C-alpha cells in the first residue's frame, strides 16, 4: 500500500509541476506580448465546412532564442469579436517545422493537430460562436511530414517570393 501511495503522490507532484510550467510559460508570453517584445502574426485562417465560423491561428515570436507560440481564436465569419480557445508554446508539426494544423471535423468541431509542444492550454474546450456551441480539442502526436522547416510566418513570406 505504501508503494501505491508514493506513486500517487509522485504523480500528483509531476502533474502540479507541469501545470505550474504551463502557467509560467503563458504568463511570460503574455507579459512579453504586452511589452511589445513579441511579434504576433496571423499565419492561418480555416473556415468551418458550413462557412459560418473561422478558426484563426496567430504565431508569436519572441526572437531567435525562444520557440514560437501559437494562439487559436474562433469568430463568426465577417465579425470582429473573437474568442481565444487555446494556446501552445514550442509546438511542432514535424522534426523541423514549427506550428500546428487546424482541422474542422464538422461544422462545430475543431481539432488542433501537432506532433508535440512544450506547453499547451485548452482555454475553452467549448464556446458559443454565432449562436452555436463549438468544441475544440488538442490532438498531439500528429506528424505532418509535408510541413516545411521553420516557423509558419517565415514559410508564408517565402511562398510569396
Please render the helix and strand layout as text:
Blueprint lengths: L1 H33 L4 E9 L5 E9 L7 E8 L6 E7 L11 E6 L2 E5 L5 E4 L3 E4 L2 E8 L12 H9 L1
Parallel strand pairs: 6-9
Antiparallel strand pairs: 1-2, 2-3, 3-4, 4-7, 5-6, 8-9
Q: Please, could you describe this protein's structure?
A:
With 161 residues, the chain is of the alpha+beta class. 26% of the residues lie in helices and 37% in strands. It has a five-stranded antiparallel sheet. Strands 5-6-9-8 form a four-stranded mixed sheet, with no helix packed on it. The chain is globular and about 55 Å long. The termini are far apart.
Average pLDDT across residues?
88
Rg value: 17 Å
Low-confidence stretches: none
Number of strands: 9
Q: Determine the strand fraction and express it as a percent band.
A: 35-45%
Oligomeric description of these chains: single chain
Structure classification: alpha+beta
- Indicate the percent of residues in helices: 25-40%
Using the alpha-carbon principal axes, give the shape: globular
- Counted by DSSP, the helix tally is 2
N- and C-termini, Cα separation: 64 Å
Give the strand order of the largest sheet, numbering strands 1, 2, ... along the chain: 1-2-3-4-7
Largest sheet: 5 strands, antiparallel
Give a brief description.
This protein is of the alpha+beta class and 161 residues long. The protein is built from two helices and nine strands.
